[in-house]
Design goal:
- The structure holds two protein chains of two kinds.
- By secondary structure, chain A is mainly beta.
- Chain A has a single domain, classed as Ubiquitin-like (UB roll) (Roll), CATH 3.10.20.30.
- Chain A is 10% helix and 38% strand.
- Chain A has one helix and five strands.
- In chain A, strands 2-1-5-3-4 form a five-stranded mixed β-sheet, with helices on one face.
- Chain A is globular and about 40 Å long.
- Chain A starts with a strand and ends with a strand.
- Chain B has a five-stranded parallel β-sheet.
- Classes of the chains: A mainly beta, B alpha/beta.
- Chains A and B meet through strand 3 and strand 5 of A and strand 4, helix 2 and helix 3 of B.
- Strand 5 of chain A pairs antiparallel with strand 4 of chain B.
């Protein structure tokens, strides 16, 4: 288990890559219209399978919503 | 209005009415309003997912029928706005962004200093930037100078429905701007949208005035008609204003003279 800050909240997760992190949180990594940033940098979907997450990382997981 | 081309960053847009997707009574009314408005460019926000209720359905519904314009609403720093734009580009596969940088939470007035900085940075990163900005010709010029594809001055405060508070300023911006001008924020009803177009705006962005109207679908149709009427009047060329009456009937041959 590593501790990450996911969308602003500290959480302990068993994951070493972004794809594993999403799956561990019940999010299908193949779902459309998702985007992920780690420590302020967008991580392209194409490398979610390899891109590592490390203890202490701040992860943002976003999707589009209604807006003006 | 089919022969009235409108380009942003070289992309032709069929409708001069842009629509926001927030605050409708329900999703079906939003979709029906979008249809009634004829809008092609539609704004969305980018938000952290709720880990409990993830759903991509809104974009699935909208993606096929319109061009999506993600916004950076709620951002108060250039850094957050830039990251939000980059996340939007990844999520929606578009390099267009409505750049919002809020300097005051009560009025939602733009923070012009950070706005220009963030716009400059995003243009360098390859974005087509449409900034929500003050009704200030100097701010608009600075945004155009850093490469924004359009400027989007406010008519009045976001969601206020107060219409165009300073028509002379909007007209001046339209006269000077080297890029398209989209009136954003403050529209309350169809005549406000028509006035924006009569003042020389290239397009109008409306959200709350439609979504919170008693009948959003009917108001969407009214906005469409307002924008088209205003645009036609602008092209037609209005008469100058006069301080005294000017009779419209002939003055010769009056009965009894």
């Amino acid at each position: 288990m590593i501790r990450l800050k996911i969308n602003g909240i500290d959480e302990d997760v068993a994951a070493t890559t972004i794809a594993q992190l999403l799956a561990a949180r019940g999010i299908d990594p193949a779902a459309r219209f998702l985007a992920v940033a780690v420590n302020g940098e967008v991580v392209r979907r194409a490398i979610w399978g390899e891109a590592a997450v490390n203890a202490g990382d701040a992860v943002e997981i976003v999707r589009p919503l209604q807006g003006g | 209005m089919t022969n009235d081309p409108f380009l942003i960053a070289g992309t032709p847009l069929k409708s001069r009415l842009f629509i926001g997707t927030a605050g409708y009574p329900n999703q079906q009314i939003m979709l029906d309003s979008l249809e009634a408005s004829g809008a092609e460019l539609v704004t969305m926000s980018i938000r952290r997912i709720s880990l409990d209720t993830y759903s991509g359905s809104l974009v699935d519904l909208l993606g096929d029928r319109c061009r999506l314009l993600p916004n950076t609403s709620g951002c108060v720093t250039a850094r957050d706005a830039i990251l939000t734009a980059e996340l939007a580009r990844e999520a929606l596969a578009t390099n267009w962004v409505k750049l919002e940088l809020i300097g005051d939470r009560e009025t939602l007035y733009p923070d012009v200093e950070q706005l220009v900085h963030a716009a400059d940075e995003l243009v360098r990163k390859g974005f087509v930037v449409l900034p929500y900005c003050n009704d200030d010709p100097v701010a608009c010029q600075k945004l155009a100078d850093v490469g924004c594809a359009a400027v989007m001055p406010l008519g009045s405060l976001i969601g206020s429905g107060r219409g165009i508070a300073n028509p002379a300023a909007i007209e001046l911006i339209c006269t000077r701007s080297p890029v398209p001008v989209v009136l954003d924020a403050g529209i309350g009803t169809a005549s406000d949208a028509a006035l924006a177009m009569e003042l020389g705006c290239d397009a109008v962005l409306v959200n709350t005035a439609i979504s919170k109207a008693h009948n959003p679908i009917a108001m969407a149709a009214a906005m469409k008609a307002g924008v088209e009427g205003g645009r036609l009047a602008r092209i037609a060329g209005r008469i100058p204003k006069r301080s005294m009456a000017e009779p419209s009937s002939p003055q010769l041959g009056l009965v009894g003279t």
